[in-house]
Amino acid sequence: MSRVESRLLGGWAGRVWMTVSLCVTVSLALALGQGTSPQPLGDPSSNHRKGKSADRPAQSASFVEGKDYQVWQRVRVKDENGFAQPVEAYSLLLPKSWRTEGGVRWIINIPCPADAVQNRFSATSPGREFRLDVFPQKNWQWHDDPMMLQHAQNSAALGGAGCGLARPLDAAQYLREVLLPHDLAGATLVSHERNEPLSKAMLEQARAANAAFRASGVPVESRPSAEIGRVRWADGRVGIVLCAVAQTVSFMPNLINGGTFASYQCQANVKTVLSGPPGREKDLEKLLSTIVASLRINPEWQAAVQRVYTNIAQVEQQETAKRAAMWRQTQQEIGDLQRRTWEDSQASRDRLHESWGQVLRGVESWSEPGGGRIELSSGYKEAWSKGDGTYILSNDPLFDPSVVFQENWKKLEKKP
Fold first, then answer.
1. Which of 108, 184, 213, 400 could staple 220 via S-S, CB 3.0–4.6 A?
2. What DSSP assignment string belongs to 280-322?
3. Residue 81, pLDDT score
4. Burial class (CB in 10 A: 0-12, 13-18, 19+), 310
5. How far, CA to CA in Å, does 132 sit from each of 77, 200, 231, 269, 300?
6. Strands 220-232, 363-367: parallel, antiparallel or unpaired by DSSP?
7. Burial class (CB in 10 A: 0-12, 13-18, 19+), 75
8. Helix (H, G, I), strand (E, B) or coil at 361
9. How far is the C-alpha of 79 from the C-alpha of 339, rounded, in Å?
10. Over the stretch 162-202, which tens digit does the pLDDT of each residue have?
């Protein structure tokens, strides 16, 4: 493991969260239209039933799921092997009856400790028309000082610890050069853009961290970026790709030649793709908007992961205790500052999740009965909550799930 990576390892825990990452944490630039009423997923016809009578009774036989109303359920993704027993890592809303696979798993004894937590999750609609893929995060490093770079290369060749060596990339470059050829085999990138509103939210986080670094005299700079892309496969299927990359740049004095050099720690922490049949692009937008805006990370799981990474950093510090005091002190300062930044970032992280969805312009906010709010697919006039993470959307004024299903559903109010 390189000396720079050793100093920054404690900070990796603040960004160990993945893509679903869909958050720590993400920028898109696509101006997509709001649309009107969305087509139901799995049925390309209109949401409104033809020839309905105004006095039709609210009976279950009179309404068809996927046509008159849509059901969303909260899916809870587990970390199966990281701790003594399976732990819920995060949750997200998916349409009812979608089949899910994968989750969070840990890989031990790998050269790059920051990649130990891997989130690989997928979900498909009942007819396999739509598919969601969340790919694991990826970390790498780079040094613009030839001697530091040679040291890292020699360490890697001898099997030493350390993340892979590659030139720093922003989200647009990573999407084109890594995510597309490695994770989306056979796909062609049709377009990609940066989103200014979401970039602004991400940069606000980065500015807060950078200000803390400067106040303590630590020459470290955070540089986040995010991108949205459109892809197409040879069989006609289309997809929306979300990609975010966090760069942490550390400026170090060159004790031999004078001046400074930069070391880069990079993490692709959002790698999410939703694909579907051609002609259903608007459905993809609305569907992905709701999914990413609904992401909620279990804070207890996240804190436990943080502790594991802190322990790794402490072990690394013990192994490098004989290095120069300047290096050890800088490592501690960076680790402490980044850990404090992570502890204060949960609320802003939730805002970033919402921004991913809102930038697609496919969600609207509704007031929860308990005083909170939820973002669901736009284009619907009415929404209900069952209180267990299940939601129903409908445009039919005669549809009332409490009557149809004889269950306790609470009607939501749309927020302006």
1. 213
2. -HHHHHHHHHHHHHT-EE-HHHHHHHHHHHHHHHHHHHHHTTT
3. 84
4. middle
5. 14, 26, 14, 16, 26
6. unpaired
7. middle
8. coil
9. 22
10. 889 999 999 999 999 999 999 998 999 999 998 666 677 77
